[in-house]
Amino acid sequence: MNKYIEDMKKKRIRAALGAEKAELVFKNGNVVDVFNRRIIKADVAVTDARIVGIGEYSGEEEIDVTDKYIMPGFTDAHVHIESSLLIPSEYVKAVLPHGTTTIIADPHEIVNVCGKNGLLYMLDDAVTTPANTNFTVPSCVPATPFDNSGGKLDANDIKAVLEEYGDELIGLGEMMNYPGVIGCVPEVLEKLGLAMTDGHAPGLSGKELCAYIAANIFTDHECSTKEEAVEKVGKGMYVLIREGTGTKNLEELIKAVTPQNTDRIAFCTDDKHIDEILKEGTIRHCIRRAIGLGFDPVSAICMATINPARIYGQKRRGAIAPGYWADIVVADSLELNNIEMVYFNGNKVAENGKAVYEPYPVKTPTNSVTDTVHIGNVTADMLRPVFDPKRPVICMKEGSLLTDAVYRETSDGLVMVANIERHKNTGNIGKAFATGFDIKNGAVAQTIGHDSHNITVAGDNERDMAAAVNALGKSGGIAVVKNGEVIAYMPLPIGGIMTDLPAEKAAEEFEKINRAIKEISSNASNSIFMVLCFISLLVIPHLKLGDKGLFDVDRFCYI
After folding, report:
1. Who wins on pLDDT, 7 or 368?
2. Does 3.20.20.140 match the CATH number of domain 76-317?
3. Do domains 3-67 and 76-317 have the same CATH topology?
4. Which sequence spans correspond to the domains of the chain?
5. What string of H, E and C letters represents the secondary structure of 182-246?
6. How far is CA 423 from the centre of its chain?
7. H or E stretch at 435
8. How many C-beta neighbours within 10 Å does residue 355 have?
9. What percent of the chain shows pLDDT beyond 70?
10. Is 393 left (phi over 0), alpha (psi -120 to 50) or beta?
11. Which residues pair with 556 in a beta bridge?
12. pLDDT-above-90 percentage for the chain
């Protein structure tokens, strides 16, 4: 055995026995015991980044936490960091003060834009932070055979990435191509044989759900009803309750959680914007929301800690127990009204709402993930769809990524939307009408359009739509136009989907975008903005818009 490792083990053992002082002791705390689901009064001793003892201890450094609650750091069980608009190093800085110390991230947004280079950028940037950030290899780049993305990972590419970077990756990201799974498409099946795979199966039920799960898929974060969640848990899946910006499923899905199935369920955010993250956190908000709905606080904390640790094989994380990594949250109450301190691997990383660690001195190189917008000048006449009462209109819903097909006799009151391919300058432009986004005298365009991240633009007139698209330049971002004038623009130079600004500055810039959108849309909440980001996602029912036109998700074809 390596002498250093042997000495560390001896040091931990002696500290655990009380034969020598621990490096750090939290004194007189209320410890959340996630194994027995109870609160115990005890000291928590830490040595060499690990928890070594629970009981009565002395430490070289002692922190009095009388009347405070000590609990494990929280885990976001499924998140696309890119949706925060932040790069990983800034994202971690934003979520740590709210208690999230472990992140299960699927980087399929940036990989859909930049391919393997996008994945490597995320790995390199995340490693500079004091957090347990785990990445999956995106399984759907592009999301479907009908998408035009900038990057591509086929089964051979995924196999090569896993062989080269396997120690840094924990499996395959969400398999969104569920028709391909059920239809036994060879390329899809080859991917599924490479590693355990996260799921994405909105509304899937019965034998089709059985077939999907049988293909080596073990989680799902797309449940929208209690019944759907109960069925998926009953068929062996882990259900991740999602509470993000555009999709808020917690209030409905918490009804599915019982004492008998709690250990099969965890929390995730999937997609959440920076302004909401800074205000309420990520998993902290899920815990508080569940408790506010009458759910047992300790069970909610288990769903945020030990459950996702077990789901994703995060050994020795997710509990306050000897031998576990010292990822610790100290809060004033189980309701998390005030998170006073956050520790990662035994080091304090946040205090009273602020990150307190020193940032990594070298910035991650970005040459391979910038200047990703490749289109010619867009004119107004290129963007107007032809109205036909027999052609469906996309009905968007606030708080949900689901859309419906509706029919109208006239185009009065409808918004025009377009999806413009921006990676290869193909000239493809899908056009349609939509309801649910009340824009007057303006338009908004962005290079955020899940998951291929082509340009999405919505407006009530073609002139403003074209102006908004052309304002995006080569870097991409979000542009808002009112009466022919660009009233707000937020550059997103990293893949056209992330900024490299500090989190607080990024939130300020995003707030300018939100204020500008409200100038042209009286009902444009932040949630509606996120829904616009997903109007092009061809794997969320029921009617979406690709760069080649309207797409029927249920029939899985362009119409």
Report:
1. 368
2. yes
3. no
4. 3-67, 76-317, 371-558
5. HCCCHHHHHHHCCCCEEECCCCCCHHHHHHHHHCCECEECCCCCHHHHHHHHHCCCEEEEEECCC
6. 23
7. strand 429-435
8. 19
9. 99
10. beta
11. none
12. 90
Provide CB contacts within 8 A for 324, sequence distance 6+.
50, 51, 72, 316, 317, 318
Beta bridge partners of 367: none
Separation CA 296–CA 287 (nearest Å): 10
pLDDT digits (tens, 9 = 90+) for 192-227: 999 999 999 999 999 999 999 999 999 999 999 999
> Which residues sit opposite 31 in a β-bridge?
40, 70
At residue 203, the pLDDT reads 93
**164-183: per-residue pLDDT in tens?**
999 999 999 999 999 999 99
Task: Specify the CATH class of 3-67 in words.
Answer: mainly beta
Residue type, 137: V
CA distance 203 to 7: 54
397-427 pLDDT, tens digit per residue, is: 776 788 999 999 999 989 999 999 999 999 9
**What's the rounded Cα separation, in Å, for the pair 24 and 347?**
10
Q: What is the pTM of this model?
A: 0.95
Report residue 360's pLDDT band, with 50, 70 and 90 as the boundaries. confident
Query: CA 542, CA 547: separation in Å to the nearest integer?
Result: 17
Residue holding tokens 């007189």? 28
- pLDDT over threshold 60, residue 527: no
Omega before 48 cis (within 30°)? Answer: no
**Angle, CA of 234, 194 and 261, to the nearest 5°:** 15
